[in-house]
Amino acid sequence: MEFEEEILKVLDENIVPMTDEEISKELVFEECGIHEGNFNTPGMMRFTVKHLPLAKGEGIDSTKEEGVENKVYYWTTKNFDKLIVQFVKDELAKNNGSVKLSWVFHAFLNRLKNMFGIRGIDLKSKYFQDLDIEYLVLEEDEYFWVEFVMEYLEKTIARDNTFIIYGESKQVDINDVIIGIRHTKEEATSRILLKKVITQIISASKNKTILFDVLLLKLNLFDIDVPYQKPFNKELLYSVLMEFNDYFEISDNRISLIRNLKSVEKIIKNTFRFSETAEIAISASGLIGFVFIGDNFLVPQASEYVKLRNLVSIQKADDVELLLSDKFETTEIYQIIKKLLKTDKETIEWIQHNIQIGVYYDEPEYLREIASEIMSKFAPVFNLVDNPGNLFTSSLRELFESRDDGTEK
User: Fold this and answer.
1) Is 191 exposed, middle or buried (0-12, 13-18, 19+ CB in 10 A)?
2) What is the pTM of this model?
3) For strand 163-166 and strand 142-147, is the pairing parallel, antiparallel, or unpaired?
């Protein structure tokens, strides 16, 4: 047991190497003293390299051929899962950030077979090699070896927050789970650009709807500067459509735009903190929603109102990232809060503690259409311009005047 524990300790502490040769050095042979009977803990993988005769005959042991016995290796599940994660990252990097689960599974099996030197049929010796992969589980105080299948791979991927999993879709003939990757800011900007081009293509189509395959063709013909290799595949397009499923509807292999107030409201209320703006905001046109999350509202008369309607300001922007960084002081909400608090420092601190931001990205023409509708529906307290439904315009102006002349009660 001491020897076994030492081997497990070494394997668990090592970082998974990237070459098959280095990985092989970390695997443990059955002859080294670890074998099935010694295990008393889950978290191990077992690899069995089988030598099977091409034609079985009476008295022939299917586990041997010409005196060659099966070879059994062991490895920790922890390191095996690390290998899966790195392998999936490599495949995504080679496939525009989207790949089918079944493709990854079979490619991963081939990687493992290559690692163990398995080349399939050897006609000279009349046998072929195969690889059994199993993992150890504990159920009701008993240990079992269970076959490694695609579900294990999917669960391992799902546990790592690096990845996004999109379900299969009969609507667009995606008959497999699609694996994507969570994006850097640069990659997110590129996918926003793809979403923008897709929106333009659909908008220009008859009845604002288009077949999935036609959309893919037109997207490939479009001159667009993104870090993805052409031709774009179905998996990439599908992952973009699913990422922005509040914008696009998929039905009967056709893609159409979802452009309604309910969708826009949902997106601009999916908020993030002001301090996260630099990581999340994108250089694209959008409608910004400012949502109050605090306890003490600056306009006492509106305190009960904002409990029901916490969207306190909306702002159109040709470039969301630029407006929320370099030009934020020009926004109407900033100017109003500064008038109430006097200093820039107080204004920024209050916003950071009491306001969260949501953004709906779309074409400027459409943003102009919906901005007035949202303004009319929500009548945000901190929008005084073009907001006739604001019930607190007079209260705000009185507050401004009283603080200017020092007569505030």
Assistant:
1) buried
2) 0.60
3) unpaired
